[in-house]
Amino acid sequence: MSNATPETSDEEQLYRLLARTRQLHSAVAKLTSDIVPVAETRFIVSFQSGVLSIEHAISASALLKLELYASGFSLYRPQFETLVRGIWLLHAADDKWVAKLSLPLTVENAAKANQTPMLNEMLVELDNSEAPKHLVVQLVQYRDVTWKALNSFAHGGIHPISRTIEGYPPRLAMDAVRNSNALVATAAQLISIVSCESPDMEMVRQLHTDFKDCIPII
Question: Which of 10, 73, 98, 213 has the most crowded CB, counting CB atoms within 10 A?
């Protein structure tokens, strides 16, 4: 971290990063709390997915503060998935999927919605859409680097089982938190884009300046 000194231990740096991350979450909540999506189904479901992604990140941060690392890390997969789904719904999903994901929650409608494309399919469709190419590249890179570990934590595989014995190196936790923070900033951008008012994207971009110590450069 930029404010670290040679005498600062990894554990202290992690605690500082978690504190700054909570400040980031508060700033994002303040920035997005009054946003109302455009009154069209595609924008509404995309907005809801972006909000859910941020919720997963906030929940993960709360668990890490309690040193419940396996439980916290397990939320990074749905954080990523809901963000990708929100971007996919906005840029690439056809109308039938938008309609299915906007239906009232019933057993029948849930079964239909469960048939939506998997993560890799959504990324392929995004790559073939008009979504910003640099954004799709970043999402694919995140998937390529983290997906196996995310699956392991989500399903109680070798990663959390092994870490329960070996412990969690602070550097590992810091990398995971920073990656999550980058997704939070992207979700804030998505929510702003689908706003019924002209989005103030400069305020969203300012997050990268104000929190450059806890958001990786992308």
Answer: 73
User: What domain count does the chain have?
Assistant: 1
Domain presence at residue 16: no
Q: Is residue 11 part of a domain?
A: no
Q: Is residue 19 part of a domain?
A: no
CB 86 within 8 A of CB 56: no
Domain residues for the domain of 200 are 30-210
For 173: left if phi > 0, alpha if psi spans -120 to 50, otherwise beta; the answer is alpha
Kindly tell me the burial class for residue 30, based on how many C-beta atoms sit within 10 Å of its own C-beta (0-12, 13-18, 19 or more).
Answer: exposed
Rounded CA separation 211/218 (Å): 13
Residue range 125-166, pLDDT digits in tens = 999 999 999 999 999 999 999 999 999 999 999 999 999 989
d(CA 125, CA 113) in angstroms, rounded, equals 18
Amino acid at 109: N
In a domain, 201, yes or no: yes
> What does the buried/exposed string (b/e) look like for 76-115 if buried means 16 or more CB atoms within 10 Å of the residue's CB?
bbbbbbbbbbbbbbbbbbeeebbebbeeeeeeeeeeeeee
